[in-house]
Amino acid sequence: MPRNGSGTGIDRRTLLASGGALAVTAGVAGYALGPGSSRATAGPPPAASRPAPAAPLAPYRRGTTLDSVAAPRGAGPGYRRLGPGPGWERVVREELAAPGARRTERRTALASFVQFTDLHLVDVQHPLRYEYLRAQTASAWRPQEALSVAGAISLVERVNALRGAPATGSPLHFVMTTGDNTDNNARSELDWFLTAMSGGRLTPNTGDPRRYEGVQDSGLKLYWQPGDELRDADKAQGFPRLDGFLDAAIRELNSPGLNLPWYSTVGNHDQLPGGCYAPRDSFWAEYAVGDRKVMTLPGEQGAALWNTVKKGGDPTGELYKELLRSRPAGMRRVTPDERRAPFTPEEYVRAHLRAEFTGPGPHGHGYTEANLAEGTQFYTFRVAEGVLGISLDSTDPGGHYEGSLGSAQFTWLSQQLTAHKDEHVLVFSHHTSKSMRNLRPDPARAGERRHSGAELVELLRGHRNVLAWVNGHSHKNAITPHGSFWEISTASHVDFPQLARIIEIADNHDGTLSLFTTLIESAAPQRTDFADLSQSGLAALYRELAFNAPGARTTLFGAPGDRNTELLLRKG
Questions:
Q1: Which DSSP string corresponds to 516-546?
Q2: Residue-wise DSSP of 397-465
């Protein structure tokens, strides 16, 4: 059963590193492996121009949710301001192994990294967005989403400021994104994601370069109109009027880029228009770059469309295309923009390989020329000595937002686990075990069987070298034991609570390992100022608006045992 505990022990090597006596730099262990290879090819280039954070005297709490978490001020219904709140203690979970009494004295840090997931960088003016389904699902439109890029950059700033791993003092080796890096499979969003992660200036605006042209200046009560006196549905709940908000939201931003190597895992929103439609014809590209956008839809029509999407009844989007072709009354003209075109899986990989996005490395961020040649989006990489990472592609190309693995990838994964039986293994994917129930055939591999999350769990349980399966998709924090490994699911960065996760691996030298998980907020101030529309002010508003968004659930935090933890397991 879970219990509170500090889990703070470190070994002599870690103490030397934190004191500067041992020269260990962040990211030195990030070797890339080809999709079918078990041999290391090349490590990331040195981040000479990006100074690594100072190593800590571990353990430490400052800058993590162990120290403080943004919390609502006051009580009652309506819009609530955020401010500094108490932190969350670490919980020891021993479902898979009992904690040894002297583990904190003997512990050796093996590796540590940061997980980003479900960033959903949103081109909020994109013609293919279905904001008009807001009445049916809170995920169709969010009051905060125009600030998604500012929020992502603030997460990058938080990681850059970390003093290593908080429990063991290990240098952080890398950042892994576990999919839905973009929201609507748009080239504009992909460019913003890659720039935010690698560093540079970007302007989160498409269409008219001088003004915003989306639903938030439409005069429709369905959406928060921040610069309008209109008493819309959100202002009726206490949302403020913020003059200049939309101008600030599409203003140029500057990302420092991560000071760690980073790797990328693909999600359904990175591959499918709307995160759910299999793109089998040219309609999606033509409409995405065009000059028409649906802003509103009659309730009954919207409910019928959403019920079909939810059940996966229209995987190629025929009903959706019919709706858009009909030019409903709620359709308006917008400025066309070629940057809104969808990207193919090949273009996704090729974009990661572009030199201007290498940042601190590795080149391709896990993807290689072999992925292009083989038409794949899965790979292996070196986490640290004796620790292998495996990144999977769990999107079903046949359509729908739930996932699965094709037989070719499933077999490849089994081979990799066997080939590396003497090493610890971490598996990364976008979908969770419970959201891999979509077994539609891949249109490009009509005869290939698809494999569910339950089958993947059984495969991983058959290999005792697997320590953890790290994923996202569900937009909530959850940690699940699976007999011999832990499934670590982390909430999204577009919905509240917008927390990334540090994961550390340590050998207790008593027959057990400890996986430490520590949630972190962005670097944005926990307290907001409505008059502050600077880059950091927008990131703070991003968090507060997300907390107040209708339909937002504090249950996405997860239970205490899903947040800051020490997860024990027996060595294989």
A1: EEEEE--SS-SS--TT--SHHHHHHHHHHHH
A2: TTSSSSB-EEHHHHHHHHHHHHHTTTSEEEEE-SS-GGG----PPBTTBTT--EE-HHHHHHHHHT-TT
What is the C-alpha to C-alpha distance for residues 479 and 483, in angstroms, rounded to an integer? 13
Interval 17-74: pLDDT, tens: 333 322 232 333 333 344 344 333 334 333 334 444 444 557 899 999 999 999 999 8
- Choose among 517, 218, 176: nearest CA to 380: 176
Q: CA nearest 570: which of 7, 11, 98, 112?
A: 98
State how far the Cα of 15 lies from the Cα of 181, in Å rounded to an integer.
36
Contacts of 91 (CB under 8 A, 6+ apart): 2, 3, 4, 5, 560, 561, 563, 564, 565, 566
pTM of the shown model: 0.91
Beta 31-33 vs 466-471: how paired, if at all? unpaired
What is the torsional sign of CA 201, 164, 543, 528? negative
The Cα–Cα gap between 314 and 51 comes to: 50
Decide if 489 contacts 527 (C-beta within 8 A). Answer: no
Cα separation, 248 vs 235, whole angstroms: 20
**Tokens standing for residue 61:** 């709490």
Please name the amino acid found at residue 300.
E
Nearest CA among 143, 149, 150 for reference residue 123: 149
Indicate the residue type of 545. L
